[in-house]
Amino acid sequence: MTNIRRAYPRPLDSMQGRVDMSHGAGGRAMAQLIAELFLRHLGNDYLGQGNDGAVLPAPTLGGLPGRLVMSTDCHVVSPLFFPGGDIGSLSVHGTINDVAMMGAVPLYLAAGFILEEGFALSDLERIIVSIAQASRAAMVPIVTGDTKVVERGKGDGIFITTTGVGVLPEGLDLGGARARAGDLVLLSGSIGDHGVAIMSKRENLSFNAPIVSDSAALHGLVATMLATRADIRCLRDPTRGGLAATLNEIASQSGVGMMLQEQAIPIRPEVAAACELLGLDPLNVANEGKLVAICAEADAPGLLAVMRSHPLATEAAVIGKVLTDDHHFVQLNTAFGGRRIVDWLAGDQLPRIC
Ligand code: MG
Q: Residue 61 gets which letter from DSSP?
């Protein structure tokens, strides 16, 4: 972002105004948009440096050696605003969570915005304010960013890409290839809330109990879990593709199978009912504030107790076990006493969910 602390003849009309091509042209209009919307809400010492990149202090871990973790995520969710969040807060939470799932402490975020000509500045401001709130609450600043504008009809309002950097202590190695037969599968809470909140909004469905996205930053929960020193093999957030995709990924990376207990998997009754109505399997539905932990069996009870004491994991549960299985199947003992294979989602039943 360029240095733009100067006055403009007319303030940006963030009530009635719309994005136009000049807002991406690198001239005065773009500088004004950045100053009066982005910097006004997101400003911090790093973002305010006004150069081609942010100069950041090298991370320290109290003098201990560490490594950098970097992750990036594009956000194309539709609709842009949904119960429990919007594309702005989602783009902060999504990337913080990917960094956190590596066991790293998230430090900085970069944000890239692709805006469509004609997009309402009032909606843009609402999204930027949401990013500012989510970033402040998580204490992970946006330190650099970029905006581009594409012609009307060539975008869909706004797309946001965020990149996160975090620091990982030496000796801590979490990964999907580390699950071993006998490990337990822990889930931090109810599944399907985010995907169903999006689909309900998109389909204009309303339910007696409102369904709200679980979008949340999980790095605090992860820190609490890691502090237990439990032998956690892997952490992963079951986002796109849902719990089914996440567990199949881990099973195939580790070359193991899994047996899940359907009755142990938390799901809100209203989410289960909506999934019935929409023809969705909740195991395939995206979450944005949940995590899966694969943990050595002996350490699982202690880890579960600590998770349940955290506000973002009060409904945490052990939902299954890792098995030896040459086919790397994830299987489910159903509530009705049957057994089935939990497969990856075929095709894309749930486009533009995050
Ligand atoms: Mg992830």
A: B
